[in-house]
Amino acid sequence: MSLLLFFISAFIFCIAIFLAGNRKFTIALMALFSLMHISFSIYAWMNRGVTELTYFSYNGPGLLMLFILSVLVIPVVYHGIIYNTKSDIKRFNIYHISLIALITFMSGAYIANNMTVLWIFAEATTLAVAALIYHDRTDVALEATWKYVFVCSVGIALAYLGILFLSFIYGKEDAANLSFETLQGLLKQANPVYLKIAFLFVLVGFSTKMGLFPMHTVTIDAHSVAPPPISALISTTLMNLGYLAIFRVYTLFSSSAIYSFMNNMLIISGTLSLLIAAGYMLKAKHLKRMLAYSSLENMGLVAVATGLGGSGYYGAFLIILLHSLVKSGLFFQMGQLHRVLGTFSLDEAGNYMILYPAGALVLLTGVILILAIPPSGLFIAEFLIIRETVFSNKIFIGITIFLFLCFIIYAMSTRVLHIIYSNPRNQHIPASEGIKVNPAETWTQFVFFAVVIILCIYQPPFVENIIKDSISFLIK
Length: 476
Hints:
Layout: H1 3-20, H2 23-46, E1 51-52, E2 56-57, H3 60-83, H4 89-111, H5 115-133, H6 139-167, H7 180-184, H8 192-210, H9 217-225, H10 228-253, H11 259-281, H12 287-308, H13 311-341, H14 352-355, H15 357-370, H16 377-391, H17 395-421, H18 443-457, H19 461-470
Antiparallel strand pairs: 1-2
C-alpha cells in the first residue's frame, strides 16, 4: 500500500464514520483501518530506502517507530471499543475519528525526511490527541486538555524556532530546503552557535511530546484523565515521536563540533527526568499517574543512553521497543482494573488478586518487566547503559542512575503489591461493583509481555538489524 493511498484511505474512513452514525459500521472500519496500517508498515519495510511524495522516506528509526505503532494498533482499537461500550454514538464516533487521525499523523511524522514536515505532523498530533483526552467530558479532562494544547503548542513553537536556526546554515539561497539529507551536507560551514541554539530549542520543544524534563508535566496530566487505551498511545508511540524528532536532529549534528554539547544536554535532561520520576513516584497516590512517572523514567533513560553513545545507542532503542510493549499492556490493564475496583486511587484499591486474578497476574508481571527485573528484556537495555557509563568514564552518572532506579523499584513495587494483596486503606464502594471482566481481555497484555521476556533471552536478527540501521550514522 503506497503512502498516498494510505493517507487518502485514512481521510475517507474519518468521513465515512462521521456520516454513518452506526456503531457496527464504525467497528468494521476500525478493524479495516488496523489491517491497512499493518499492510502499510509491511510495504514500508519492503521498500526501505525509498522516498515517496518527496518528503517521506522509509529508513531505520522511522521504520522501527512505525513497526511499533502497527503492533499496538489492533490492541488499542480492541480495548478502545470495550472502553466505549456505554458511550453514545456521537462520542463513540468522535473517539474513533480522532484515533484514526492520531495514528495517521504519527505515521507521517515517523517517515518524514524533512524537518518542517515532521514539525507539521507533530503539531497535528496535538489536535488529535486533545480530542481523545477530553473524551470523558469531565472538568478535570477539560483542564488537562487545555493544558496539553497550550503547553504542547508552546513547545512545538520553540521547536520551530530551532528549525528557523537550522535555516541559518544556508546562505541567501535555497533557505526553504530543510531536508535532513541536504542539511547533512552543509554542516561543515555552519556556525556552532546556531547549531547549539537550534538543538536546545528542538530538545526543549519536542520534550513536550517525549515527556522529558523540562516539559514533562503536560503528559503526566494527560495520562491521568485520558481513556486507558489512549494513555497507552500517549505513553508509547507519541513519546516515541518526540524522541524521534530529537534523535533526527541529534544524528544530523553528530558529526559537527557540538557533538559533546548535545551529549551533555541529553544526559542532564535525562538524569533530571529520573530524579523527578523517583521523587514523585514515592508519593504517587493515583495509579495512572504512577505509570506516567514510570514513562518519564524510561524516557529519561533513553535520553541518558543517547547522550552516553556507544552501546548506549542500542540500549536507547531497545528501551523504546520494549517499553512500548510493557507500558501499553499496563495501561490496558488499568482500564480493566477501574472496571473492577471503580477507582484509580491507591488508598481505595486492594484485594485485586481475589477480585480479578487474571488482571492481578498481568499487573504483577507487567511491573516486574517495566522495572527491568530479569527476565525482562529491559534489564539488557539498562545493563548496556550502566556499562557504558563505566566505559565512558562517567561512573558518577551510572551510580546516580542506579540509585534513582532503586527508589523507583521500591516505590512502584510496594504500591502494586498493595493493590494486589492488601485490603484497601479507605473503605470504598465502587460504582462498578459487581461488574465482571472477561479474563480473555488480558490476551493482548500476555502476548506483549511474552515478547519482552523472549527478547531478554534472544533478539531476532531483524530486530538487531533495524536498531543497528537506526544508529549506523552515529559516532561510536
